[in-house]
Amino acid sequence: MKKHPKKLMIPGPVEVEQDVLAEMGSPVVSHYGEEWTEIYNETVELARKVFQTNNEHIFLIPGSGSAGLDAALGSTLQGDRKLLVPINGWFGNRLKNIASTHSDEVDTIDFELGSSVDPDQVKQYLEKNPEVEVLAITHCETSTGVSNPVEEIGKICSRQEVLFIVDAVSSLGASQLKTDEWDVDICITASQKGLEAPPGLALVSVSPTAWELVEKTSDPGWYLNLKTWKKFALDWADWHPFPVTMAVNNVLALRRSLIRILDEGLNERFKRHKQLTEFLRESLRNLGFSLFVEDRFASSTVTSVEAGSKVDIDGLMEYLETERSIKIAGSLGEMEGRLFRIGHMGPGASYDALLPLLFGIEEYLRRIGADIVQGQFLKENSD
Ligand SMILES: Cc1ncc(COP(=O)(O)O)c(C=O)c1O
């Protein structure tokens, strides 16, 4: 029997709108030919706008976000080519792990969990280590909900002539990220978070500067090799501009969600996500919670909350799922058992989603007899 769907308030995948979902159930079409190529190119063009780039090459690679990260790192690293990864969480560490399979020279700078990467330390490191050729960083560190200063680090990398790779898997489409203006050479995201489509596609935008390095790099295999994707985009441009059987329904769904995103307007979206994040943070504080990340570092897609000594995270998550049909997430790595995380992307980035969640959390607190420190949230909303 089909289970009643839960409201997804996890840090991805996110729920998708009905018209986007309907594309997944539409008839499968052939992945080549004039008609399909037009649809594919239109989707790439829409993605180009969301990336805020003029880069000629944006690839839609069937796979998850990690496929895009592996393609970017594998196509720019080899042997002893040096990469720096500033790390402030689980996904920064993941970048290091992927990079280490392609290069023997992976340097890291570790930052405190919950703080953002400090551009000054990155600058000093690069000045002292001019042999670093590539830097990779997460934009939103999804494990804690910290937004890293991509714009500042982009300027530093550009000055030092270091190739800049950004993992925007949990930010692009929901938080401001100007690929070209911020000097991001390779920007990677996935379909299932800020882009509000089902999981299944990695999106990779590659700058002309990045191509210079990619051309000098030995092949990291065939599928996740950016050279392969470029070759087919050029050689088979008019009928099959990618090397594999494209995930046609995922592309149709992504096209629909990108149209929605651009119809709303990028700046409007970023503003909405930010305002809702502020509302959520304020409301959680009013319930008595401490937030793990300071306001100035907070991402507008994921919020992590200190459970404190009274709240059992598993108990809270189970209550929300069974009684309220809302799914939130625990944390990863060292923060497991200490933080719970709320994703606010897709339909989750709305008062319609946040209010029932907050009422559910408050109800759970009452059930376990926890103090609600200020109780303002309840008062203000029961008038
Ligand atoms: C910042 C970040 N990087 C990478 C990933 C991995 O993406 P995927 O699971 O789509 O491979 C995630 C997924 O949560 C993420 O949030």
Bound molecules: pyridoxal-5'-phosphate
Helical residue percent band: 40-55%
The amount of beta strand, in percent, is 15-25%
Major sheet details = 7 strands, mixed
* Name of the CATH superfamily of the largest domain: Type I PLP-dependent aspartate aminotransferase-like (Major domain)
Q: Report the structural category.
A: alpha/beta
Instruction: Walk across the major sheet and give the strand order.
Output: 2-10-9-8-5-3-4
The shape, in one word, is globular
Question: What gap, in angstroms, lies between the N and C termini?
Answer: 41 Å
Describe this structure in words.
The protein contains 13 helices and 14 strands. The chain has 383 residues and is an alpha/beta fold. It folds into 2 domains: 123 residues, Aspartate Aminotransferase, domain 1; 246 residues, 3-Layer(aba) Sandwich (Aspartate Aminotransferase, domain 2). The strands form 4 sheets. It has a 7-stranded mixed sheet with strand order 2-10-9-8-5-3-4, with helices on both faces. Strands 11-12-14 form a 3-stranded antiparallel sheet, covered by helices on one side. A two-stranded parallel ribbon has the order 1-13. Helix 4 links the parallel strand 3 and strand 4. Helix 5 packs parallel to helix 6. The radius of gyration is 21 Å and the shape is globular. Bound molecules: pyridoxal-5'-phosphate. The site of pyridoxal-5'-phosphate has 12 residues, from helix 3 and helix 4.
